[in-house]
Specification:
Layout: H1 2-29, E1 34-35, E2 41-42, H2 53-75, H3 83-102, H4 111-126, H5 142-174, H6 185-218, H7 226-245, H8 255-275
Antiparallel strand pairs: 1-2
């Protein structure tokens, strides 16, 4: 079964890079929106490739879900016990979260950005040790391994969608709203806010479950481990965003930047705190 995983990842990478390239072509060829005399926007035709962006993300997601399922069968437990597995699951959940939100909000223009981010996660996975190894003692809690780490990855994925929308908003603001591929800055802010409202409680649950697991494994609910501190700092940043996002004064301009900072915290928690800094969570090192 493990023999299927790398080809699935390479296929997903190819599909996502093709989707990103199609998005670049659409961004170049899409006519800029114009305004009629009465101030109403004039409809413009999008290049044919625009209709392939969301299906490209969907195909990439399907391949990643298949890779995740194959890994689960190969290892016999939830497929996120090391950074290789977490990277695959992170990429899959990111695209699934994007597709779920795209069903209700017209954010197809963010599909190339979602594809690039997921492709980067696949690249990380392909460069990490993919050998199937027995679980270390700290991870031998099947229920908590499934629920705690799965919840954390889901929170990361939704935070990734929030990041994409916040980055798009900042781009639209910098370009004066002239990026035809992307929705308006107002729509992107609403999408980012919705994503944070979904992801913040999930992240909270993940941290609480992690504390319970830490007490079972190490006899302490909190030990100031680098990954614990990074997760707490990330939680505080998104909490600060929720405070700023409700304001109507100049502080509201910080909202997208706080989401960007929060997602940087997510990336450090997921990769840096386990790979670059030795701690109790270093069992996830390659």
């Amino acid at each position: 079964m493990t023999d299927l995983i790398t080809p699935l990842l390479i296929a997903a990478l190819a599909v996502l890079l093709a989707t990103a390239a199609a998005g670049l072509v659409v961004a170049v060829l899409a006519p800029r929106p114009v305004t009629a005399t009465l101030g109403a926007p004039v409809p413009v035709d999008r290049p044919p490739l625009a209709g392939l962006l969301v299906p490209g993300v969907a195909l990439g997601a399907a391949l990643l879900v298949a890779a995740t399922a194959a890994r689960a069968i190969a290892v016999g437990h939830a497929p996120w016990s090391n950074l290789h597995e977490v990277s695959i699951a992170f990429a899959a959940m990111l695209l699934l979260a994007f597709l779920a939100i795209a069903r209700t909000v017209p954010i197809a223009g963010l599909a190339p950005l979602a594809a690039v981010l997921a492709a980067g996660l696949i690249g990380v996975a392909l460069n990490l040790d993919d050998r199937v190894q027995p679980l270390v003692p700290a991870l031998q809690q099947p229920m908590l391994l499934t629920v705690h780490v799965g919840t954390a990855i889901a929170a990361y994925a939704v935070a990734g969608v929030a990041f994409l929308a916040a980055a798009g908003e900042l781009g639209q603001d910098a370009a004066g709203g002239r990026i035809a591929l992307l929705p308006s800055a107002a729509v992107l802010r609403a999408v980012a806010h919705r994503a944070v409202l979904i992801g913040f409680p999930i992240l909270t649950v993940a941290i609480v479950l992690g504390s319970v697991w830490a007490n079972l494994a190490w006899r302490a609910y909190w030990s100031n481990d680098p990954k614990e501190l990074a997760a707490a700092a990330t939680w505080l940043v998104f909490g600060a965003y929720l405070h700023v996002a409700t304001r109507t004064d100049r502080w509201s301009r910080l909202a997208p930047w706080l989401i960007v900072l929060g997602f940087a915290g997510v990336l450090f928690t997921y990769l840096g705190a386990g790979l670059l800094i030795v701690g109790e969570h270093s069992y996830g090192r390659p």
